[in-house]
Amino acid sequence: MTEARTTGPRAEERRRLAVLGRLRPHHVPGASRRAVRSWRAYRERQLAELAESNRLQQELREQLRHPVRAQLVAPDEPSTSRPWWQASPFYVGFTFALGALLAWLLVQNLTRLTSVLTFIVVAVFVTLTLDPVVQWLTRRSMGRGGAVVLVFLGLVGVVTVIGLLVVPPIVTQTAALVDRTPDYVENLTTQPWLARLDERFDLSAWLAAEADQLATDRSTLSTIFGGVLGAAGWVAGSLVGLATTIILTLYLLATLPTVKEAGYRLVPHSKRERVVGLAEEIMRRVGGYALGQGAVATINAVCSWVMMQILSIPYSAMLAVLVGLLGLIPMVGATLGAVLVGVAAMTVSPTAVLVVVVYYVVYQQFENYVIVPSIMRRTVSVPGAVTVVAVLVGGTLLGVLGALIAIPVAAGLLLIYHQVLVPRQDRL
Fold this sequence. Notes:
Elements: H1 2-7, H2 9-22, H3 31-65, H4 67-72, H5 89-112, H6 114-138, H7 144-189, H8 192-201, H9 203-216, H10 218-254, H11 256-264, H12 269-311, H13 316-327, H14 333-345, H15 350-375, H16 384-398, H17 400-427
């Protein structure tokens, strides 16, 4: 193979060009000198064009490798622009003032959109909660549209049942309290200790004077009217927010694959597969946690209702619903529900209160060591300290809603920490 390279036609051509390149004009006579000079000029032009081509290719590679630096720093042209701190004081002050004004307007607009952002967060959380049910139905040969309609009707049915169990007793108790208020006041005025206080401090005259002043003060009517309007506005806003959240949840649940695909397309193609895997795992954990927490709260509500029926505690259905809703709140929800049931048991007997306390102590142990591990085995795994910090931060920022979504958010952040941040730091 080596002999073929040294004896072939290309090798002969290279030797001929080398000989011609070493020739000088005085080596050959007459017209051959002009041919040699032409060849040398042609060879020098080719070498110059080759060097220019190499330089242009090198500049192109540098621009592709560092596009921002190539645009900002020109290699052959000195920069004539001055740094911003050497510019006119008027220009610097105007620029900073304009940036501060834009930041202030952005903060003000975001503050006004707090309620809208809250509706969106609730709708996304409910959508991720219901999506595993929809996927389970679609795996059972049901179309996504039919599965979404079925799950949505189930959600509306649950909300309706909760409303029917909670609202009528509240309305009945409020009406009964208003009707019995005069009797309560009369019984209170006949108490001996109140009569002694009246004789000592003349409370009746002071109360009569305050009542007359409130009756003649114009601000009293406006305050009462404003309070009534404020309460009515809060109720109307809550109903509108509930309806908006339900409708938004329906749209998101129906178009969730399309929405996810559109979001994934915003990620660069080289990193898209990794981002899709992490996002799907986070959404799976959020949905699994919400379903698991709902199942735990439902079991607590049903067992509490059975216990209250046995002890004949009044309004057991309403209390059971409240226990279930409070059970959705991590860490303190179950305790608050037990306190409510204990307070209601005081109207029955001290023995009923003792039974309620013993029941919830035993049930809490059973829930912590049997029910929760069985349901949450494949959902989230968050250390205890992280759970406490997440619930405190979420409750401080968003109240009850923040406490509800704190643990799945913490689980997602831990997933990113273990699968993205730690491997990247290990490679550095």
